[in-house]
Amino acid sequence: MQFGITDYIVLVLYLVGVAVFGLKASGKQNSTKDYFLGGDGIPWWAVLFSIVATETSTLTFISIPAVAYGGNLTFLQITIGYFIGRVFVALFFLPKYYDGEMYTAYQFLERRFGPVMRNVTSTTFMITRLLADGVRLFATAIPLAIILRLGGAFTGWGDLELYMLSIALIAGITLVYTFFGGIKAVVWMDVVQLGVYLGGAVLAMIILLNKIPGGWSDVLAIASPDHKLQIFRLGFDLSFKEFIAQPYTFFTALIGGAVFTLASHGTDQLLVQRVLATGNLKSGQKALIWSGGVVILQFGLFLCIGLMLYAFYNGMSAEGLGLATTDEIFAKFIVEQLPGGISGLIVAALFAAAMSSLSSSLNSLASATNFDLYKPYFGKNNTPEQDLKASRIITLIWGVILTGSAFLFAVLQLQEGQRPTVVELGLGIASYTYGGLLGSFLLGMFFKYPGSKDAVIGFLCGMITLLFMVNGPVQNILPGEGLIIAWPLYTLVGSVVVISTGMISARIRKAA
How far apart are CA 418 and CA 481, in angstroms? Predict the structure, then answer.
């Protein structure tokens, strides 16, 4: 079975309909508050679904099944930490943000440490989003590239060319409604798309289960001997060096997941902007905490799909299935095994949900750029109309830059050799810079003595320290064997270094 003409028609009609709906839902924008915060507020339940869709859509759909296919269910441990982290953010971070009108998370740091710290952290957020969302956009292109390859119209094209064409198409469509629609278009599209996207996943799961001769009993029989049903792993049998390098031991996953969420949902403008769009503290807290429960269920669903795919394909490698990466396995099943029309609907839902995530990134990047860098220095005397026009131009510029970032990751991920799944790559990138951001926020919230210089010194020390603990270029030129830590610990280690260094700097300055 192939991706046929019915599927293409469904795909095109669906994407056009989504773009039109997004534009209509956005209403009219008269100011940057309308464009970036939705005016007087958006219902908390809509923001809840927007949070879930924004943080997990493409990477969850494409890469989480690949994690279970190539490993087991221990990734689920991290989601428990995600829930704990959300509760902490709701109780301690959000009240600070609602204490006065704020458009970005980094305005809090300006109040506490001054404009230099705001500029440093806001710029770091932009770099993080540029890299992490380059991975997201690359992941979104995976099913489209497979469709183009299987369709036969692009015979002779290599994998890289197909990925770049796919990335350009997705980015172009997303820019249309993001440019005009603002945050309301993004959030209300997320609400619709998350329902369709999860419904499509459940439908694919049912069809997949029916295609396995013995159903779920066969899945268990095939997965169990290879230890793929394991959820919890304490890791006490490992040496210390092995323990801190393994991302899916229980305490590493739990603590790392919680600290990661403190940073992602408490300091990252991508998600903080969603919560601020509710318009009041209690609504923001409800949206954030309940999103944690939905995320646990969602990760569980896609990990189970990975187990079923492992049984369906008898555990064959990506190369054995004729795929470029393991991340393509679920997309391969969708376009080859689902009935005509259904595969088109599911791929369309995947695209639309992924575009919602991309549009969220574009909107939050434009928001941070406008309020943290442009307006304080170049737009102080702008009229509301001029600010809105500048915001849309900045959105367009970021769209081009993010497309270039996705091109870069397509080149890197399609090289020969062992590659991480894109979800681990994306989370690893975000975890690296989140340590500095979270440490700076905690330093400002819970410690009175550190000043601006102490915060900047701590932030830079946290970032530099991680260079020597992350498996990368710096680690490769160090003499001997370096100390490599697992990606869930990047944020924890980075934030501890920031706080410690900031406090030491403050004490030295006070004693001098």
Answer: 20
φ/ψ region of 341 (left if φ > 0, alpha if ψ in -120 to 50, else beta) reads left
Identify whether 36 is part of a domain: no
Task: Report how many domains make up the chain.
Answer: 1
Cα(447)–Cα(400) distance, rounded to whole angstroms?
40
Q: How far apart are CA 139 and CA 429, in angstroms?
A: 15
Q: Are 186 and 360 in contact (CB under 8 A)?
A: yes
- 358, 139 Cβ separation under 8 angstroms: no
Question: What backbone torsions phi and psi does residue 402 show, to the nearest 5 degrees?
Answer: -65, -35
Which element (helix H / strand E) includes 453?
helix 452-467
pLDDT 10s digits, 110-129 = 888 888 888 888 787 788 77
Find the CATH number of the domain harbouring 17: 1.20.1730.10
Cβ neighbors of 378 (< 8 A, separation 6 or more) are none
Residue 253 lies in a domain: yes
Residue range 182-225, pLDDT digits in tens: 667 777 777 877 787 788 888 889 999 999 888 888 888 888 88
Euclidean distance between CA atoms 476 and 470, whole angstroms: 10
C-alpha atoms less than 13 angstroms from C-alpha of 277 in its C-beta half-sphere = 35
